[in-house]
Amino acid sequence: MALKKYKPTTPGQRFKVISTYDEVTVDVPEKSLLAPSRKSGGRNNEGKMTMRYLGGGHKQMYRIIDFKRDKEDIPALVKTIEYDPNRTSRIALVVYKDGEKRYIVAPHGLKVGQTIISGKGVPPEIGNTLYLSEIPFGTVIHNVELRPGQGAKLVRSAGSHAQLMSRDGKFAILKMPSGETRMILQTCKATVGMVSNQDHNLESYGKAGRTRWLGRRPRNRGVAMNPVDHPMGGGEGKSSGGHPRSRKGTPAKGYKTRARKKQSNKYIIESRKK
Questions:
Q1: Please, what's the b/e burial string for 206-215 (b: 16 or more CB within 10 A of its CB; e: otherwise)?
Q2: Which CATH fold topology does 3-46+56-201+263-270 show?
Q3: Radius of gyration (C-alpha) of the chain in whole angstroms
Q4: How would you classify the pairing of strands 91-96 and 162-168?
Q5: Domain boundaries of the chain, sorted by first residue
Q6: Do 16 and 204 touch, CB atoms closer than 8 A?
Q7: Which are the contacts of 7, defined by CB distance < 8 A and separation ≥ 6?
Q8: pTM confidence score
Q9: CA dist., res. 129 & res. 119, Å (int)
Q10: What is the pLDDT of residues 15-42, one digit of tens each?
C-alpha cells in the first residue's frame, strides 16, 4: 500500500496525505452482501442528544463480513479487494467452491486469484484460518476469537497483528498489538497474516470537511468552556485548565478505569502498561 502527498495548491490540499488505493480492484460492492446502515446523529428515541460530536456524514451501506470463517475445508478464491467505509482495513470478496460469496477482512499481501481455506490441518499461509492449537510459534496473526465459535473480536484494525508466543495447558499465549500478553483458549480460531492498509495511521485528511464526511462534528475543548460546562473551564485568559479530566469529572492521562476484580484479569499475564 502506498500514500499520496498532494501539492499545496489549495489550503485543503496543503497537508493532505491519503492512500493511493492501488490494492483496491473494484468500485462497486457485492450487492447480496450489503445491509442498510442507519445513522442516529447521536440522538436517542426521544430525539435528545446523548452523544456529542456525532452527525452528518456520507450515506453508507454496511458490508456483511464473515468473522467466523466457519465454512471449513472448502477452498475459496479471492475475487476482489475492496474499500470498506465501515473499517480502516481493506476487505476481500471470496467465492467458495460451492458458489457462496463472503467478505473477509483482507490481510496484507492477499492477492486476487489466491486460494484460502479454513479448518483443521490447513497450512499456516496468509489468509488461512486455523485453530490456535495448530498455528506455529512466532506466527503473525489477526482476527482472533475470544471464545470458541464467537467470531473474531480482536486484532481487526488496519496494520494490526498479534503474535503466538507459546502454549500452556489448554491456553495459547498471545502478544497483542497493545503490548499486552494474554491467554486465549487453543480452541479459538485466528487468521494468519497482518491486517491490510498498514499505512492508515500516516494518513492526514488535510481539511475539516473530510472529517465531516465521516460523520464527526467539531469537538470543543474543555478549557475553552465556562466552569458551569466543564471541570477544566473558566479562568482569566488562556489558563491551563487544571488537572485533565472528562466532562463528567473522571481523571484522564494515567488514571486507571479498568475494574480491579474484572473477570478477565486472570487471563492477562502482562498488562499493556508495563
A1: beeeeebeeb
A2: OB fold (Dihydrolipoamide Acetyltransferase, E2P) (2.40.50)
A3: 22
A4: unpaired
A5: 3-46+56-201+263-270
A6: yes
A7: 13
A8: 0.92
A9: 6
A10: 999 999 999 999 999 999 999 999 999 9
